[in-house]
Amino acid sequence: MTEHHLKGRFRSSAGEIAWGTDGTGPDVVLVHGTPANSVIWRGVIDRLRSDFRFHYLDLPGYGASEKFEGQDVRLRTFARVLREFVDHLGIDRPHLVGHDFGAATVLGAHLVEAVPARSLIIADGVVLNPWGTPYARHVREHVEAFAGVPGHIHRAMLAVQLTTGVSRPLSVQMEEALIAPWTGEVGQSAYYRQIALYDHDYTGRLEALYPGIRVPTLILWGEEDRWVDPTVGQRLAALVPGSRLETLPDAGHFSMLDVPGLFASLLRAELTAHGSVPA
Asked: Whole-angstrom Cα distance, residue 101 to residue 215?
C-alpha cells in the first residue's frame, strides 16, 4: 500500500478535519464510513490517480481528524461538514463517492445541504432504516460498559469486528491503519461516542428524498456484505430514478479493500461516462 498522506487541515463546524488530495483530472470527493477512515480509498486512488483528482477527508472524530468530548458525530453533521469541505476546496460539481456512513453523508450533502454533484457513487451504504449490525446495536445499548473495557480488550474486539467486514484477510498494515485511531484514551472514547450517536432519524429523512435525485447514480455492493445486506442496495436502486446497481463478487462490506481492482474499474467507467454531465 502506498503511503497515505493527510497534509491538509481545516476548521469545520465539528472540529479540525484532516484531508488530502492526490491525482490529476476531474474532481472526485471520497468519503469513508465507520469504523474506518480515508485510508480505505488508497488502493483505488493509486489505480486511478492519473485520470482523476481525488479529495479525501477523515470525518469529524475519525482517523487523524480532531476528537473531543461532546463532539457531534451524527450523520447530519457529517453532511454539513462535507458541504464545508467542498466549499473549502472551492471545487464545482465534484463526483461524490461514499461508503457506509459516507454514503449517507454524500446523499445528505447533496439532498439536504444542496451540494451540487456531477454524479453520485454509493458503496455498501448505510442509507435505509433499519441499519446497524447486531454487534453494533448491542454495543449501543450498553455503550458505557463497553467504553470502560481495558484497552487491549477493546483493540481485540475491533480486530475481530473488522474480520466480519471483509471477505479476505486484511493486511497487517491496513488493519493497524484502521484500528490505531480508535486506541488510547482519546481514540477509545471517540469510538464509543460515534456508536452512541447513531443517527437513524437522519437516514429516515433521507429515504423520503431519494426519489428526487436527478444526477447519475451508481450503487456498488459486495455480494458477501455481512454488515449491510445486498438487498439494501436493491431497495435503494428502486428508490433512485435511473440508478444502476452493480454487485461485486468475492467482496464483503469493504468492497474497495476486497476487490480494489474491480472497484476501481467500475468507478473509472462511471466517472468517465459522466465527466461532462451537468448537475
From this structure: 20
Q: ω before 35 within 30° of 0 (cis)?
A: yes
CA triplet 143, 185, 254: central angle to 5 degrees? 65
Dist. CA 75–CA 3, nearest whole Å: 28
- Residues making up the chain, counted from first to last: 279
**In this predicted model, what pLDDT tens digit does every residue of 179-198 receive, in sequence order?**
999 999 999 999 999 999 99
H or E segment and range at residue 201: helix 200-209
Q: 31-45: per-residue pLDDT in tens?
A: 999 999 999 999 999
DSSP annotation of 36: -
Q: Can you read off the three cell numbers belonging to residue 242?
A: 435511473
Our measurement of the distance from residue 162's CA atom to the centroid of its chain's CA atoms, rounded to an integer in Å, reads: 15
- The model carries a pTM of 0.95
Q: Cell numbers for 101, please give them.
A: 456512513
Query: If we measure between CA atoms, which residue out of 139, 142, 129 comes closest to residue 160?
Result: 139
Rounded Cα distance between 177 and 235, Å, is 32
Cell numbers for 273, please give them.
Answer: 461516462
Handedness of CA 265, 85, 27, 9 (dihedral sign): negative
